[in-house]
């Protein structure tokens, strides 16, 4: 017989997780679908369920000091608690714009009032709409258990579709976004409809261009991440470094743009599934990359 717990403190939740296997339940918007049996029937769970939506200490978005990871690295970060809903993230002034754009594209307002970003992350879908922005922002996750806390880069936490580094006695308690001076950004999602549609392909980008004395632009920061084109989000710091330091004028040269697009083409490896075909996904993501490079060339 499956039991259900609804702890009100983190300590109570971690006490529960320390013994046996459980299903952690935040907003339940993924779980209710995953465990559904038939329309009109209640879902069934095979393990005890721990609801984590009543833990007030996980419902905050705050800025706090962090240990810098090296010289010039940020000494302050944004902490987003696992109990914060997508709607709260979408409207919070401290949340970086690129993340707000991604979160705002998830489902519809009623669902965002209930669902959490922690659930979106731990579901580990390559099509999850919060993930491309979080990858670009170098987000980290804090995993807590009675034994203590461990923190790791989000891209190390997510291993494969539906698979993360989370241990049975742990829960994700915070997402940490190092404070950074953020340049212009965008999030573009391709779905069957503008709202309430799962992603066929998505692209998030950040770029900063500075102008020299001659008025000519130079790229000083450039990041791009693709969703739903591989088993996890695709971001390559190596390819990004090819763009950084380049004059924007170079982005008007078809040969250079073809070279960059060609290299991304190699690492974008989508699959066919019920939502789209691999060919469509590949072409759509490359088109979005080309469009963005061309916009930058005009700066
Ligand atoms: C109609 C519909 C439309 C949707 N549209 C989109 C969309 O457009 N884009 C998109 O990205 N997603 C979409 N989703 C998926 C889903 O709504 C999101 O992934 C949502 O963010 C999940 O959050 P949740 O709090 O409801 O997670 P839950 O369903 O509660 O949990 C999801 C997973 O995360 C685990 N988990 C939850 N919280 C924690 C925690 N604190 N620590 C460790 N593990 C945890 C759970 O055990 C479970 O495995 C849609 C879902 C539905 C039903």
TrEMBL record:
GO terms for molecular function: FAD binding; oxidoreductase activity. SMART domains: CO_deh_flav_C. Residues 1-182 form the FAD-binding PCMH-type domain. InterPro entries: CO_DH_flav_C, CO_DH_flav_C_dom_sf, Diverse_Substr_Oxidored, FAD-bd_PCMH, FAD-bd_PCMH-like_sf, FAD-bd_PCMH_sub2, Mopterin_DH_FAD-bd. SUPFAM superfamilies: CO dehydrogenase flavoprotein C-terminal domain-like, FAD-binding/transporter-associated domain-like. Gene3D superfamilies: 3.30.465.10, CO dehydrogenase flavoprotein, C-terminal domain. PANTHER family: XANTHINE DEHYDROGENASE FAD-BINDING SUBUNIT XDHB-RELATED (PTHR42659:SF9), XANTHINE DEHYDROGENASE SUBUNIT C-RELATED (PTHR42659). This is Xanthine dehydrogenase, FAD binding subunit. It comes from Photobacterium marinum. The lineage of its organism: Bacteria, Pseudomonadati, Pseudomonadota, Gammaproteobacteria, Vibrionales.
């Amino acid at each position: 017989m499956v039991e259900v717990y609804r702890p009100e403190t983190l300590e109570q939740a971690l006490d529960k997780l320390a013994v046996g296997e459980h299903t952690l339940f935040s907003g339940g918007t993924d779980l209710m679908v995953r465990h559904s049996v038939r329309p009109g029937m209640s879902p069934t769970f095979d393990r005890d369920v721990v609801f984590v939506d009543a833990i007030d200490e996980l419902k905050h978005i705050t800025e706090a000091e962090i240990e810098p990871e090296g010289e010039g690295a940020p000494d302050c970060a944004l902490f987003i608690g696992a109990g914060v809903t997508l709607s709260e993230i979408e409207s919070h002034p401290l949340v970086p714009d690129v993340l707000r754009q991604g979160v705002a594209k998830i489902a519809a307002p009623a669902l965002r009032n209930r669902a959490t970003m922690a659930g979106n992350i731990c579901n580990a879908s390559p099509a999850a709409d919060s993930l491309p922005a979080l990858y670009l922002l170098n987000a980290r996750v804090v995993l807590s258990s009675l034994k203590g806390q461990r923190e790791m880069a989000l891209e190390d936490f997510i291993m494969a579709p539906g698979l993360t580094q989370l241990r049975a006695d742990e829960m994700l308690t915070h997402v940490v976004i190092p404070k950074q001076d953020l340049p212009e950004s965008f999030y573009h999602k391709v779905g069957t409809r503008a709202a309430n549609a799962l992603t066929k392909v998505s692209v998030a980008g950040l770029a900063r261009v500075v102008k020299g004395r001659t008025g000519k632009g130079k790229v000083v920061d450039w990041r791009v991440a693709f969703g739903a084109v591989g088993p996890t989000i695709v971001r390559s710091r190596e390819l990004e470094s090819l763009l950084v330091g380049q004059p924007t004028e170079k982005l008007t040269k078809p040969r250079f743009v073809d070279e960059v697009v060609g290299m991304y083409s190699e690492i974008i490896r989508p699959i066919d599934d019920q939502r789209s075909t691999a060919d469509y996904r590949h072409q759509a993501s490359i088109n979005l990359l080309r469009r963005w490079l061309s916009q930058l060339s005009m700066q």
